[in-house]
Amino acid sequence: MSTIEIKHLTFGYDNQGTELFSDAELTLQTEWKLGLIGRNGRGKTTLLNLLQNKLPYAGTIQHQVSFTYFPQAVTDPTQLTYYVLQELTDFEDWKIQRELNLLQLDPEILWREFGTLSGGEQTKVLLVLLFVDEVNFPLIDEPTNHLDVVARKQVADYLKQKRQGFILVSHDRSFVDQVVDHVLSIEKSRLVLYQGNFSVYEEQKGMRDRYEQEQNQKLKKEIGRLKQTAADKAEWSRGREKDKYGKPSVKGSGAIGDTGAIGARAARVMKKAKNLERRMDNQISKKEQLLKDIEYIDPLTINYQPTHHKLLLKVTDLQLSYEGKPLFDPLSFELHQGQRLAIQGANGSGKSSIIRWLQGTFDGEATGEILRPQQLAVSYVRQNYEDNQGTLIEFAESHPLNYQDLLNNLKKLGFERSVFQNPIQDMSMGQRKRVELAKSLATAAELFIWDEPLNYLDVFNQEQLETMITEVQPTMLIVEHDETFLKNVATEVLYLSKPSEAEDKK
């Protein structure tokens, strides 16, 4: 067993102006299977880079281990997979064979060109490299990208049976829940460690947030009372300030205006009032420092326009093919107003092809019929959105979208204000995905069709979407691999099987 000790860690990027970590303290055990979670932009990948000493920082990070990182950079995907792996690390052939078997991959995959492998196959063979290396400590960054439901379960089972520890970044809550025994949450101003899986983290964090919100409310009331008292005292002391000038004597009244005595008395009262005011300010300042920096998740808005049509889609005997090879057996389905139909199936089974067919962009052969209302307003979230270009205001004008609605949802999705002026093509993949999602939310539509909407989104974004969909209940057709998300939002599920699989089940 070894430890990773973080002491007084402070780090921030120069162009962001704020610190991601400020005087952070943490001790981790390398035997833990640790899930690293937090909002996009909070520093999950940055922390992995700091552990690897890839970035300058203040403080100390002490450990006796060396790290290996996933995903590894492949420089030449035209090589056979075996030689790609050889370039990345040294290994014994029998260990590679063992790990491939554990991931239910045919060893023949080693002799295929790496670039011809599917995204899921590439993910699996690169994961294999982490565990043929029994010396270095694995840092695993988003292994579920490109994996279907079956492949995610295979990888989860694979990681569960490993005896060695690792640090895992993933936004798939079900996947993390199955795999980890500790959770490290990067929150607004601190690192918080939890013992247990993701479900334990959610329960404990919920209890802690509720307690801290109650304490915050009490503190805010106390601060408000102190501020009112300070304001009253300040007003009273200003009144005493006027007294030191005394009242002018009235001719013939016999009164003698002793302005010197009155002024001295007023000065003493004023000094006492000022001391009281300073004490009140100190109390307010101390109370304000006790306020917890709680993670508030603002609700998203969606421009859903319910239609008077009850039936929005009726598809009969649909079959899609490439070069005469069908992707799935003929299928039929209906989508009624208020329903949320999830399409599930293995990678390559034709889920995204159905969406392209509905858009009129499928480039293969298609048979079947579709019935839908004329002028049906549809809003899409696409898997591929590289054609999103320009500034946000140019983007809003070209679609067209309400610019303020676009910005508001981007802010709620955790978009950093410093990025608002950047061209979309210069943004990170996570930022570009949120632009695509915010575009769909701002588009007036009777039907929302989303193709893998959760890629690159953090857990908090996923919960925002679930809450919004549950409350608004828009009509939707969704392709997604995240089981927790579908369980929470889908009303109907359509499962696609490849024709050969369907024959086997008969």
UniProtKB/TrEMBL annotation:
Alphabetized CDD domains for the sequence: ABCF_EF-3
PROSITE patterns assigned: ABC_TRANSPORTER_1, ABC_TRANSPORTER_2
Protein's name according to its UniProt entry: Lincosamide and streptogramin A transport system ATP-binding/permease
Record keywords: ATP-binding, Coiled coil, Nucleotide-binding
NCBIfam families with a match to the protein in the record: ribo_prot_ABC_F (NF000355)
Domain ABC transporter: from-to ranges: 4-213, 313-506
Keyword hit for Lipoprotein: no
Species this chain originates from: Enterococcus diestrammenae
Domain of life: Bacteria
Listed GO MF terms: ATP binding
InterPro entries: AAA+_ATPase, ABC_transporter-like_ATP-bd, ABC_transporter-like_CS, ABCF_ATPase, P-loop_NTPase
One Pfam family, short name: ABC_tran
Coiled-coil ranges per UniProt: 266-293
